[in-house]
């Protein structure tokens, strides 16, 4: 057998080579290297057994001391709960505690009803103006983002 026939049989063989091909591999150093390389690749593809995985995990668990949750983790959980409750309380307070402008002015006691009405109308006008400016700013930001996206999309 020559190296070319060995290579053909090696490529076409699914499991084992013929005795003639093995004899050629023993005699030819190049074919022996090819066969050794195939054996190394085959050995590296072997999957460890589930039993080995269980043994490794058991030894790691045995080497590491069991840690029970200490007081630090309990305190941390309590602090997270307190922080969440405070945030919720702050949100509820902010949403429900919005006094109207005319009530604040009337409580001052120094202004007449006409002044209170005029100030509440000014406050409403100011709110409308702020809303309009906010919308203009948002539109300008969106246009800027669209321009940036267009520029990124057209990059070479």
Globular, elongated, flat, extended or rod-shaped: what is the shape? elongated
Average of the residue pLDDT scores: 76
Tally the structural domains: 2
- Tally of DSSP β-strands: 0
Strand content: under 5%
Element pattern in H and E: HHHHHHH
Write the layout of secondary structure elements.
Blueprint: H1 3-12, H2 19-27, H3 29-44, H4 50-63, H5 71-96, H6 101-108, H7 113-153
Describe this structure in words.
- The protein is 79% helix and 0% strand.
- It folds into two domains: 3-47, no CATH class; 72-153, no CATH class.
- The chain has helices at 3-12, 19-27, 29-44, 50-63, 71-96, 101-108, 113-153.
- The protein contains seven helices and no strands.
- It is an all-alpha fold and 156 residues long.
Which key phrases capture this entry?
single chain; 156 residues; mainly alpha; 2 domains; 7 helices; elongated
Task: Give a quick rundown of the structure.
With 156 residues, the chain is mostly helical. It has 7 helices and no strands. The model has no long low-confidence stretch (mean pLDDT 76).
